[in-house]
Specification:
This protein is α+β, with helices and mostly antiparallel strands. Helices cover 47% and strands 22% of the residues. It has helices at 5-19, 24-34, 52-62, and strands at 21-23, 40-42, 48-50, 66-69, 74-77. A three-stranded antiparallel sheet has the order 1-5-4. A two-stranded antiparallel ribbon has the order 2-3. The termini are far apart.
Length: 78
Amino acid sequence: MTVTAQEVAEWMLQELKSAGILYQSNAVDYIRTHFGEQFIYVNDNGNQSIDKEVKKLFKKMHGGRAAWERDGFFWGWS
């Protein structure tokens, strides 16, 4: 069974709603382990990040209810 970017984004949203906070490093680790390496890439700063399509879908799903905290590298639910 093939996992889609939509499913990964849905997981991210559920985690964020449930915990109120989602750290990027924790999300990267979970996504790599449970959904596959194809949803992770190394960004220009040399850090592991979540696939851009997943983040785009995630942003569309939360509709502005989540805020990215740049200094802490996490999303917070509002």
